[in-house]
Amino acid sequence: MALLSSDTALLIIDVQNDFCPPHHDKDGSISEPGALAVADANEILSPINRLSALCEKQGVPVIATQDWHPRNHCSFSSTHAAPGEEQGIWPDHCVQGTKGADFHPELNLNPIRLIVRKGFRPYLDSYSAFFENDRCTPTGLEFYLKGLGVSKILVTGLATDYCVKYSALDARRLGFEVMIVSDAVRGVDYPAGSLHKALVELEAAGVSFIDSAKII
Q1: What are the structural domains of the chain?
Q2: pLDDT tens across 139-164, in order?
């Protein structure tokens, strides 16, 4: 895979406050931990920012996703989850217009060409950047990327065993070549063992892993 060629895109998955541990806010204060904080998630900011800056310099499109849930979302423990095996129940998180839904303040937004908001339907969750959890309602990202002539995707973000996994698997299913940047993702491993299971599924689907240093 020729890295950062004209047919490549960088995908940044859900680097939002509610998925991150305490960190410095823009005013210098220390934030509260996110509602679904992923351990060591703050460590992925540096490799993601270096990659996105290089992509911007080389004309490679950078796309970010953002969980964007209404207050009565079906996945929230404060409401009743919709039926279906893909509809998990989680603490309320990434509520539209709240600080928790904002991108991490250290994420450089300048290189990002497109923000895909997902999970905004009250009755339907969305892990993948490409489809809602009914596996058939598209976000539009597939058509955007193919319209740009993209055939290869570098995936970064949170969390490896959920939104990163489903995005990478869907990208493979849609015919994209996919590499996960190993030092620019972190997993939640909930329930225990989900991270290992995700890595096995990703490998079986033909998703490969690479360290950002080999790209930069």
Answers
A1: 8-214 (3.40.50.850)
A2: 999 999 999 999 999 999 999 999 99
